[in-house]
Write a structure and sequence with these properties.
The complex is a heterodimer of chains A (about 450) and B (about 260). Chain A has about 450 residues and is an all-alpha fold. Chain A contains 18 helices and no strands. In chain A, helix 1 packs parallel to helix 7. Chain A starts with a helix and ends in an 18-residue tail after the last helix. Chain B has eleven helices and eight strands. Chain B is globular. The chains are: A mainly alpha (about 450), B alpha/beta (about 260). At the A-B interface, helix 9, helix 12, helix 16, helix 17 and helix 18 of A face helix 2, helix 3, helix 4, helix 5 and helix 6 of B. The complex binds iron/sulfur cluster (SF4) (2 copies).
Chain lengths: ~450, ~260
């Protein structure tokens, strides 16, 4: 029985780790579903193409080559080293040692490539850290990055260093044990990187080596489980959500903003010469929905998914004309605020069973009007986002709320809109003068 | 050239039982703004020159609704859109060309759902096609060898992925085309979009058009080419603020073609 103790312990760790993770993901899904439903999802083929190109293929990352290529290294490292994790899980449950080693030379090459990747990841992570903390690249220094977002980004980097070091230590000690011909440590794998760590362990006894190897092995897998559970609290959730997010991302031309259906119906009614303007609304007609968005529940599910997916990279903000000229608006902040408010609403639901009015909302409490009115709708943020997030759509929905529910547009805009209404142009000219230019030499 | 240019309206065409090849959607800026009217007239010259059978809506045209929509007034936008669609559908319009990227985008992308389905092109695309069909001849003329940088309008470029049409035209003018640091899909906005044209900017360090003008000036251009009446105004204001209006002018691509040969 005692022989199986590690296996049982491992299984428990695995179940607890994955169990908590599932609970977190459920929360994310529940919160996203607080948003308005989206219509039928069309153009699936194009969407899958985007997933392959943009999410899997990271096509938008390399627009900025330095960070893009390093990100690809970390990403490929992450994906491929996960094959190793699969082996670790099987070994952990069944008490085997390097179960995939029957693959022979293929296995050797696999392990070798994991090691090379691990080294590259280490290098990339160090560079990332320097960019954030020494070089202090501008897009990481905006006001919304103070406190938790900054720490979060660094924690992830530290995590990755520790995991990679544990992985290499595990391999080095394993290799040394193989060299010593220790029982259970059958020869398998090729260790081009951890080879260089061998001298560190050459004086150790078999027992010490086994101990170090086991500790590294355990910490590595436990670390991965902890990391998995850290995702929910972190911008790092993007490693999972980037895929569905890109799938649901906008595929229409960027300039095409959606038309509000509820408005279409009303306008049609108004323009129908046969409609009786004083007729009571038909029996059972829904009270007109709220126009636009003042809180997260007014946004749609894709917009909320966007918020959870945002990795706070700031590529959007660094291309935003408003932000670059010192205005308060930052599209990244729009996404971060949306997520923070959604989380707040989620916690409120956890506590009360259902949402209890808390006297707060996304508008004003998180996103100010000044930010919303600074946007030029230029789509630079949408174009820049490597995971197909659309901050502009949230800005537009909130403007709609301000204008249509609150009549709270800036005065000059009200003037322009009155002009459009009365003269068919944003300036006070008479529509009858529209063709005068042809007679002006 | 006579005082008044020949600009037939749809109503006149209808009366004669004719359909034009294309409807020229002039837009509010093109109709009323003094600077933009020059672009309108230049474009009309080119249409005549290429023998294009076109008409305008004249007094039946109304704001496309773009600024209302981007300001958040969906109601006003859809009112404008439906009114325009009624007129356009009444005339059985098939193809529309416009020199305003905002009208272009709205008519092309946002009208179909509301019942307005037309083949909508930007004037730089239309001119490019005329060129390729051999209906319009463009040669260097007085812009040959001039250093020119093109400012991408957001609603033509990023919004609708058209970066090449205006550049092709400029190449035909045999100019020395120089690109700004941020161009094409990463081009910086001039600051006018999203109804900003009609309001004061929010507090900041700088106005967007100044930032963009400075970037354009970095290319040491003889001229700045634009493809949007609003960008044109913004960049012209920027140049004035930099006190460079004596040396550097801002011109629409259509104006450049029309002026190249003094048509
Ligand atoms: S669309 Fe608005 S938020 Fe996005 S980059 Fe342009 S100005 Fe900034
Ligand atoms: S919205 Fe996209 S580009 Fe902007 S910070 Fe988030 S992930 Fe980065």
């Amino acid at each position: 029985m005692l022989d199986y103790f590690p296996n049982i312990l491992f299984l428990i760790a695995l179940i607890v780790g994955i169990g908590f993770f599932t609970r977190n993901i459920r929360k994310v899904v529940r919160n996203i579903k607080l948003g308005r439903e989206i219509g039928e999802v069309t153009d699936k083929k194009e969407r899958w193409g985007n997933v392959v190109r943009i999410a899997l293929g990271q096509s938008k990352m390399v627009v900025r080559p330095v960070s893009g290529i390093m990100h690809i290294i970390v990403y490929v490292g992450f994906v491929i080293i996960n094959i190793e994790v699969l082996e670790i899980i099987i070994d952990g449950i069944f008490g085997t040692h390097r179960i995939f080693s029957f693959l022979g030379p293929v296995y050797d090459w696999l392990i070798a490539s994991f090691e090379v990747l691990a080294l590259l990841v280490l290098v990339a992570v160090v560079v990332f850290w320097i960019r954030r903390n020494v070089q202090r690249i501008k897009r990481f220094m905006n006001p919304e990055m103070k406190g938790w977002p900054k720490n979060d980004a660094n924690y992830i980097l530290y995590f990755e260093v520790v995991l990679m070091m544990l992985f290499l230590t595990m391999n080095a000690t394993d290799h040394q044990l193989q060299i010593l011909g220790a029982e259970h440590y059958s020869e398998a794998g090729m260790f081009p990187v951890s080879n260089f760590m061998l001298p560190l362990f050459s004086d150790m006894s078999v027992d010490t080596l086994v101990l170090v190897e086991r500790i590294a092995w355990w910490l590595h897998i436990l670390g991965i489980l902890v990391f998995l559970n850290y995702l929910y609290f972190s911008k790092h959730l993007h490693i999972l959500l980037a895929f569905p997010n890109v799938f649901f991302g906008k595929i229409n031309p960027k300039g095409q903003f959606s038309n509000l259906e509820s408005v279409t119906n009303e306008v049609k009614l108004m323009m129908d010469p046969n409609a009786d303007p004083f007729a009571a609304p038909p029996e059972g007609a829904e009270t007109p929905a709220k126009f636009g968005a003042s809180d997260v529940m007014d946004l749609n599910r894709v917009q909320l998914l966007n918020a959870y997916t945002c990795t706070e990279c700031g590529r959007c903000t660094s291309e935003c004309p408003a932000n670059q000229t010192g205005k308060k608006l930052s599209p990244r902040k729009i996404m971060m605020d949306t997520r923070d408010r959604l989380e707040e609403v989620g916690k409120n639901i956890n506590k009360n069973g259902e949402f209890k009015e808390d006297g707060k909302q996304l508008l004003d409490d998180y996103i100010s009007r000044e930010e919303l009115w600074a946007c030029t709708t230029c789509n630079a943020c949408v174009e820049a986002c490597p995971v197909s997030i659309d901050p502009l759509s949230i800005i537009m929905d909130m403007r709609q709320y301000l204008v249509m529910e609150q009549s709270a547009a800036p005065t000059e805009l009200n003037v322009a809109m009155t002009n459009i209404e009365n003269n068919g142009a944003p300036w006070p000219y008479n529509q009858m003068d529209r063709l005068n230019w042809k007679n002006e030499a | 050239m006579s005082e008044s240019i020949q600009v037939p309206t749809m109503a006149e065409y209808m009366a004669q039982g004719k359909q034009p090849e294309v409807l020229f959607w002039v837009g509010c800026a093109g109709s009323f703004d003094d600077r933009a009217k020059k672009i309108t007239k230049a474009f009309v010259k080119l249409l005549h020159n290429a023998g294009v059978d076109f008409a305008v809506l004249g007094t039946e045209e109304s704001c496309s609704g773009d600024p209302a929509k981007r300001a958040g007034n969906e109601f006003l936008f859809q009112m404008q859109a439906m009114m325009n669609i009624q007129v356009l559908n009444g005339y059985e319009i098939k193809k529309i060309v416009t020199a305003c990227p905002h009208c272009f985008n709205t008519l092309k992308n946002e009208y179909p759902e509301l019942g307005g389905n037309y083949d909508v092109v930007h004037h730089t695309q239309f001119l490019r096609d005329l060129l390729n069909e051999g209906r319009l001849k463009v040669e260097g003329g007085k812009f040959k060898g001039k250093r020119i940088t093109f400012h991408d309008p957001c609603y033509l470029g990023r919004a609708n992925n058209e970066y090449e049409a205006p550049r092709e035209l400029l190449r035909k003018l045999e100019v020395e085309l120089v690109e700004m640091k941020r161009c094409k899909s990463r081009g910086l906005c001039c600051g006018a979009g999203g109804a900003q044209m009609f309001k004061e900017p929010e507090k900041g360090d700088k106005d967007v058009n100044i930032e963009r003008t400075e970037e354009a000036l970095e290319t040491k251009p003889d001229m700045i080419a634009a493809g949007c009446p609003f960008c044109n105004t913004m960049m012209t204001d920027g140049i004035k603020a930099k006190e460079k209006e004596e040396e550097i002018s801002v011109m629409d691509v259509a104006e450049m073609i029309a002026n190249a040969e003094d048509l």
